[in-house]
Amino acid sequence: MRRVLLASTLALAAALLAFSALMSAWAPLGGWPNRIFGEPAWYEFDPGSFYVAAAHDLHFGTPALFLGHPGTPLLLLLEGVQRGVYAFSDDAGLSDAAFTARHLPVVFLASKLLMTILHLVSFAFLFAFARQLLRDELAAWCACLGYATSLPVLHYVSRISVEPLMMICIFASFLALWRWEDLEGKGNAMRARLFAALAGVAVATGLVTKFNFLVPLPFLLLLEGALAPRAAGPGQRARERSLALLALTSAAVVTLWFWSNWIDWILFFSFWSGVPPLWNSATRIWNLWPAPTAAGVLPLAEFAFVSVAVVGWVDVVRRGAAPRRRVVFVSLFAAYTLVVFAYRVYLERSFLPFHYFVPAAGILTVFFGAATARVLRGLTHSLPVAAAAGALWLLVIHGLAVYATVDSRLRDVAFYQELRPTFEWIARLAPQQRIGVREEVFEAREFASKVASLHTIMLPAPSAKAGGSSVRHEFESLFVPVPAARADGLTGGIFVAALGTELFAVEVPAAAVSP
Fold it and tell me: Which one, of 24, 30, 109, lies nearest residue 455 by Cα?
């Protein structure tokens, strides 16, 4: 059984990684809207380009250029990716910012592969979380399959966002807490405190990853820990419990202080508290009905999944298949995330922000796995038959989500084909070369905005820092005006439809090239 489950898990991981690698290589970046069933959804650069740009200019003790959610751990990882890509490059004579500006597709490809790996890591944490809660490996495996093939996860598996890191922190927080409880019950106080501290580290890291979803989790963890069964005597158990809770709180505070070296909390709260609903046209009530549209695809694709999960939750609680206290606290957190999701849907009158469903899906899928495993065991004792039945069941549950994701990515690929020759041409420029543009075109008012739509390094921060991206500066400084008389004599140019003009490779004086 374990060998089959392991082989299936590895096959799923390889398929997702291959899908992400292909789609990311064929369409790494751009300013188009991701289309779902042909309708525009979130723009390709939101929030990936924001995080990539801010990661490049990350400095300890200085708030990041992008406020994010805040997403600070992701910024550090993306910074590492960029430094690694630059370290293994062979473009001598270019600074890291200049290299990144000239090789944006490579940087985005590496960043998107990182995101896919983080998703795979989140699946591993989900497996451990479900197995610890249900004490059932088959149910944990079914839970991972249900989550990995859900629409929000599939859609974001090759996009740069904080969701996988957020889920890792959520699962790790509960796992560390439960390990603390188990060790304390066995009288292993020192190791119990260590895991209590790890729970604090995980929950604080989650807070600075996506604050609005993780804000109640520290209080839920403390409450669950305080109500956990105690095995020692009255005096000893009170002392050990207090020390463990102190370890959790102290670790969380220290971790939060560490991450806050990259966060301006005052600006963060003032900005996000004043953001209005984004989709002014999404006031039509029919956007809330299941439909093959960008606004209605989530309920259409996930109705069966959620229904099975709810049935599984009732069955688990009724049978006592998992510790009820743990189920209660996990369910309370899931209920909070559903409230946040429902509020966002209410603001926009649309299910389009379905990434807000990710944390609830991560919890619901545990009970989806429990229900699926029970049905498979009741159906047959033959492993091949169970595997075939499980695959067919998953196709019924999430076949539409798979189709919608593949279709969306193929549309992205079609959009990028127009940009690919331009980025490939820029990557071939020698360090001393720049991009020549006819002077009258360069000085036109709309040219700068067209260049911005090409690199998509745009930071929606509410301060002057938004324009301080060194990558954006390097990319835009590649373009230099060429007088008409000189331009007429240049050859080997490339016409760029997105800019509406022809570009030329021109030499610049050595003194003007910044190493």
Answer: 30
Residue tagged 């324009």 (tokens): 467
More confident residue, 409 or 463: 409
For the segment 312-333, what is each residue's pLDDT rounded down to a tens digit?
Answer: 999 999 999 889 999 999 999 9
SS3 of the chain: helix, strand, coil, percent, to 5: 70, 5, 25
Distance CA 29, CA 10 (A): 28
Region of residue 349 (left: phi > 0; alpha: psi -120 to 50; beta: else): left
Q: What tokens does 67 get?
A: 């406020």
- Residue 507 φ then ψ, to 5°: -80, 145
Tell which residue, 506, 497, 499, 479, has the closest CA to residue 102: 479
Residues 100, 487: Cα–Cα separation, whole Å:
28
Residue with tokens 């560390």: 176
Q: What percent of the chain has pLDDT over 90?
A: 72
Q: What is the CA radius of gyration of the chain?
A: 25
Lowest model confidence (mean pLDDT) among 53-57, 278-282, 304-308, 446-450:
278-282
Structure tokens at 49: 């380009």
C-alpha–C-alpha distance, residues 45 and 425, integer Å: 21
What's the pLDDT band for 156 if we cut at 50, 70, 90?
A: very high
Q: Give me the DSSP letters along 200-255.
A: HHHHHHHHTT-HHHHTTHHHHHHHHHHHS---S-HHHHHHHHHHHHHHHHHHHHHH
Q: Which tokens belong to 464?
A: 């002057």
Per-residue 3-state assignment (H helix, E strand, C coil) for 291-336: CCCCCCHHHHHHHHHHHHHHHHHHHHHHHCCCCHHHHHHHHHHHHH
Pairing type for strands 39-43 and 501-507 reads unpaired
Strands 433-438 and 479-482, bridge-based pairing? parallel
DSSP 275: P
The pLDDT score that the predictor gives to residue 285 is 64
Q: How far apart are CA 498 and CA 501, in angstroms?
A: 8
Distance CA 44, CA 102 (A): 19
- Beta-carbon contacts of 428 under 8 Å, excluding residues fewer than 6 positions away, are none
Cis (ω within 30 of 0) for the bond into 483?
Answer: no
**Tell me: the pLDDT tens digits for 31-63?**
999 999 999 998 999 999 999 999 999 999 999
